Amino acid sequence: MPIDDLKAFFAKLETDAALQDQARALQGSTDDERVAGLCALAADAGFTLTPEDLSSAAASTAAAELDDQSLRAVVGGVCEITGTAAPQFGREFRG
Amino acid sequence: MSAAGPVSPRFAVLRPDWLLRGYSDRPGVLANWRTGEARPLAAAGAYVARACDGHTDFTSPIFLPKHQATLNLMLAEGLAEECAYGAELDPRQRFREAPNRYIQYTQWAVTGRCNLRCRHCYMDGPTGRYGELPHDVALGLVEQFVDANVQRLHLTGGEPLLRADFWELAGALTAQRIAIHQISTNGVLLDDEALQRLRDLEADPILHFSLDGVGTHDAMRGCDGAEAAAMSAIRRAVDAGFKVSVTSCLDGVTRDGMLPALDLLTDAGVRSWHVTAPQAIGCWTTASTGLSLDEQAAVCEPILRRWLALGRPMLVTLCGIYAGAPGEYVPPQEPLHRCTPDDLHCGALFDDTAYVMPNGRLIPCPRFIGTPFETALPSLLDVSLSEAWANEGLRAFLGVTKSQVLAHNEECAACDEFGECGAGCWAMAYAASGDVFGRDPVACDLWKSPHRRHLAGIAAGTA
Fold first, then answer.
1. Are A14 and B104 in contact (CB < 8 Å)?
2. Do B41 and A82 make contact, defined as CB atoms within 8 angstroms?
3. Would an 8 Å CB–CB cutoff place A13 in contact with chain B?
4. Partner B, chain A 17-46, Cβ-Cβ below 8 Å
5. Nearest-CA residue of chain B relative to A84?
6. Res. A76 pLDDT band, cuts 50 70 90
7. Closest B-chain CA to A88
8. A62: closest CA of chain B, how far (Å)
9. Which residues are registered as beta bridge partners of B96?
10. How is residue B271 annotated by DSSP?
11. Calpha distance B42→B28 (Å, rounded)
């Protein structure tokens, strides 16, 4: 189930600072080497990932890959002062 | 991936005002240290934000299209900007994780002393009952705020500018990139030099003043000249470009000064005005000039009509009876929010907001000053803020849901107004009956009265 592994690996990557450091260290090499390195990193972490999986994921459209929850969290934000009671106040002073 | 041909590397950095913070219950929050604005991030957002370091290539296979889309959103929202390789982040912007849950907003009463003698002070300011912490201890609290990743502070008192080391404390906060989001002051000490020092901090706080009516302020504040000083400070703060908000306490002494205050504050260019009845805590527990809800409404209606005639010049809140935004009237979208039993009981606090008393005690809300809860909750002189934030008693407060209140309060459970009122405020319930889960008589009167609907009708032009 490579797609599941791909999702699971990236879910771990998003939250594991040490793994992120290792992944960023792959950047100095060529594209092919970076892909191979990332697959190796995934294997070390217990996931099966192939260059084809990554190519497939990269070729997919951003919209199809968007995580609505993630997007909302980025653009979101509630009124931190009084919740729903004074949203105008928040907007007023954020402008 | 190489089959797609060479792709230009793509780098980004957080924009200078934005910091990346993490907490035990949140993977990341982007915080603007000047404005206090916060953007909570999901895991993918935090992952992308951490990579906005000027050194991480976003064309790398370690990023999926959803991460690219998230980056694009951050760029569009002004949270980050594209850059050449090697652009440096200020070290204070970099991701820093605190061991505690998210603390989004903290009010810090830096002193319990005051230079006025207000009849309604919830802090017993005229007696200086709560004093203030020594300089080195107060600086230690700043370090605690840093360690706990407090995102923004509201500095209050007593009169915060009365602290001899106020500017040093404020400078320590901004040096650590903690947003000074608001400063509450009576204005007496806010001279031009103070405004300039505030400007030099590069912070962008809301300056929140008290003005208890025109011709009535001094009587409420117990000092001659307080009104002239407050109005002078308000005008100078607006002229200096600060965002200015004003609260006015309404009682039998100040009622006649409220309507003239609207004209004065409009002329001064105040951004928001809050008329409120004093709460039955601190000095006000022995006062005898409080107004009934009907009397408050009788004061608020002409204020509303005048505010409409002036073209809705500012945000106003009138004793909970009416709240209106400035500018053109926009019909409210009904319902804005209907309370449910699953909501946290205090809609103002959520579970990420706290209040630090002048003596270092950490309590949920200033309305609990002087109650037995005050001494039952942790002191930052004994434990760190990170530890105190996990305190069982404090969590019990912050985590209470409305369902817990309804289970103890049959009247609220059966009330048709619950969806709007949400069973009121537990501090007001405690003040009335000694039971935080009891009936809040102030909210009960307010929501069952016709005044809210009547004033909303006036604003909508239907009454």
1. no
2. no
3. yes
4. 17, 20, 23-24, 26-27, 30-32, 34-35, 38
5. B337
6. very low
7. B325
8. 5
9. B21
10. S
11. 7
Place of tokens 């006025």: B116
- Token pair of B159, please? 């009169």
Reading the block at residue B362, the tokens are 């950490």
Chain A to chain B Cβ contacts (< 8 Å): 147
Cβ separation B315–A92 shorter than 8 A? yes
Task: Give chain A positions within 8 Å (CB) of B3.
Answer: 55
Q: Which residue type, as a one-letter code, is found at position B148?
A: A
3-state secondary structure string across B38-103: EEEECHHHHHHHHCCECCCCCCCCCCCHHHHHHHHHHHHCCCEEEECCCCCCCHHHCCEECCCCCC
Please answer whether residues B190 and B214 qualify as being in contact, where contact means their C-beta atoms are separated by less than 8 angstroms: no
B152: left (phi over 0), alpha (psi -120 to 50) or beta: beta
Residue B354 tokens read as 């706290």
B96-97: strand order across its sheet: B38-41, B26-32, B18-23, B96-97
Query: Which residue in chain B is spatially nearest to A60 when comparing CA positions?
Result: B65
CA dihedral B150, B154, B158, B161 (to 10 degrees): 100
Instruction: Give B77's contacts in chain A (Cβ within 8 Å).
Output: 74-75
pTM of structure: 0.87
What's the rounded Cα separation, in Å, for the pair B293 and B153? 33
* Average pLDDT, consecutive stretches of 10 residues, N- to C-terminus, chain B (463 residues): 64 96 93 89 92 93 90 93 95 96 91 88 80 97 96 92 97 95 94 94 90 95 94 97 93 96 97 87 78 96 97 92 84 67 74 87 86 89 95 84 91 89 85 88 89 92 84
CB neighbours of B282 closer than 8 A, spacing ≥ 6? B120, B121, B122, B123, B124, B369, B370
* Contact (CB<8Å) B315/A58: no
According to DSSP, the residues that pair with B13 across neighbouring strands are: B53, B81
pLDDT tens-digit readout, B195-237: 999 999 988 899 999 999 999 999 999 899 999 999 999 999 9
Please indicate whether, in this complex, the C-beta atoms of B323 and A86 are within 8 angstroms of each other. Answer: yes
Which residue of A10, A31, A74 is in closest CB contact with B73? A74
